[in-house]
Every structure is written in structure tokens, then in C-alpha cells.
Write a structure and sequence with these properties.
globular, 8-stranded mixed barrel, about 325 residues, alpha/beta
Length: about 325
Amino acid sequence: MEERIAERKKNPAAREKGYLINILILCAISIFSLLTAAVVLLWPFYYTEKDVARAGGAARDQVLDSLREGLSSGETALQAIRDLYPDHVVVDDNGVFSFYEIDGRLTRNEFLPEDFARDGRDFLFYAGPGGFRSETGIALPEGAAAPDWEEALRNEVTFAFLSLGRFNSKSELIPNTQFPGLLVSAEKAGVRPCVSVTVTPTDEETGKSQAMDIIRSIREADRTFEGTVAIYVRSYADEEDPEIAVRRTAGVKKILDMLKGEGFDPVVGGDLKALCGSVRLRSLRRYSTWVADYTDDPYYPYAFRFWTYGSSVQLSDSDYSAFLIMELISE
């Protein structure tokens, strides 16, 4: 070995030959690696139609077996489908299922089904580990008169969402004529009043216009009110141009920003389809969320503050039916 090394030092040609051999070996290794990678990457394209059909049949059978197992255990079709798509929010809109991919950049809620329990009145409350407590509230339907607030307090209802009205497709506010009286009576009874209004902005400009109408209407009813104002978003068709949802989101954000600037506590609300499909939540993440999801535990994957979980509760025989709401409060 020492003689070979000495020979290469004395003979440059031999040294260059050694370098050439090493380069050829490296090239051969590289070519082999590239060919191996090409085979791995391109191999699926050489599956026969029979292979594809066999794989498709196996996948179909697996899905059907999962659905059959879920339905046999007492799950609804919606629950069984949701189990198959844990990375999506699955919404059933009158038999038409919509799938919304969960955005990993939004804050997730960490709640488990066992974190919620029902009391003797069938009201849900938070029963999980420390860090949160819950309060019970109601949302009165548009047009409802004042309920029996004393009965509400006896049932530990501490807050109520009162409808200001709703905007139509022309961006005109259709006011709830009961709102001013509801606001005054709730405050007088000691129930914390919150405001809700259904909005229909198509862009930032219509959002600004609707925000001005909301602020004016609240101030006309009570100039000192500085509580929670929920901007409730309608559900829209999935087939629309995604740019429409982007412009709508800009309008909703404009409303929320203007309400915050006026000293209110703004919240964005809606059902699962509205929150996951009609707006882009990432642009609204600075604001708390009110989600309507009528289940025993919240299916909504993201952080939320208010949760409408039940309806058709009557605090007294003379009252309108109201929607039951839970507010989760950080401690």
C-alpha cells in the first residue's frame, strides 16, 4: 500500500487515474439512486386497471364497513360520516353534506365530551377541569316580548341575547320593534343584556353602512349600553365563487372593527356552515365566536365563547320559546 501511494506521488498520471476512478464510482452511485427514485415515483402509473379496481373496491368496502359499524352502534348517519372525516367539519344541510377542511392555523378548543353535563333542568354546564366556568343564557327569537325575567333569574339565566333585527339582501335593516323594551326590561331585572343582529354585507363598504345602522339603533335604545353585540352571519351556498366569501368576510370584519371602536364587545356568530363556509375565520380570529351546534358536546373544532346547544325552552307558560346558550368564561 505504501509503495502504491509513493508511486502515485511520483507519477501524476497514476494520481489522475485514481481520481477518475473515484469520480466514475460516484457517478455510478448517483445514476443508480436516480433510477431507483424514478422507479418508485413512476411505478404507480404502471398499475393495471384490475389493480386499480381492486384497490378501489377495498377502499369502498372499508368505508362501508366503518359506516355500518357506526350505524349499528346507534350513531346517526351524520355522526358516522363525521367519524370517517376527522380532519373536516361535516355539516348536514337538509340531507346535503358539506365538508370543510379544518384550518390548522386557527386556535383549537381542547374540550372533551365528558367536560359537559346536564343538570336537573336539562341545562348543559361545564364540568371539566379548571380554567373555565360556564353561565347559562337565552336568545330570544325576533318579535318575542319580554319573558318572565324573575323566572329566568330563578333558573340561573344570567344573560340574554336580544335581537336588534336583521338586514335584508338590499342591506336594509329590518328592525325588531320589541328591542328597545327588551333592553330596558332586562337591565332593570338584573339580567345581562346582549345584542344580536343578522348581517348581510357583500363587501367592506356595505359592512361599514350596516355597522353605522347597528350603532345608531343601539344608541337610540340606550346611549349607555356597552355590552356584547353579536354579528350573526347567514349561511350561503357552497357553490359560490370563493372571492365572494372573501369580500363578505371583509364586510363582517369592518362591522366588528367599528363596533369595537365604539366601545362594544363584538362577537361573530353563526351555525357551522356559516362560520366554516360563508366567511374566512382566519381573518376574524381577533374576535370571540358564538356557534350554533345543537349537540350534547360541541362539534365545532375551534375556540369559541358562546354555544347555542338547545332550543324550545319556556321559562314560564306565557313566554316565547327561547334558545339555550352556554357562555364559557376563562378563569
